[in-house]
Amino acid sequence: MPSFARRWSDGPNKWLADNPRVLGAGALVLGLILVGLGVSALLTGQARTKYGGQVEGGQAKVLAIAWLGFGIVCVAFGLFKIVGGGP
User: Fold this and answer.
1) How far apart are CA 62 and CA 64, in angstroms?
2) 78 pLDDT higher than 90
3) Which of 20, 24, 29, 58 is the most exposed place for a label (fewest CB within 10 A)?
């Protein structure tokens, strides 16, 4: 990694290491958004792709399950950091 990138990332990394609840809150918010998208896609049977196209049926179900999976992982990581992940 070039030295300028290493120097730039040291500050935020140290700050997040000192304040793990902020990192946990960010992960929790992202996870809740993903879980919401997944539940919505499962209930309606329709989902949007990142380019705005709409998918239906089996493709929407697979996309919803992926969103739910990643959302649950983000929520679990966020709760871990908020509850006991500090130094």
Assistant:
1) 5
2) yes
3) 58
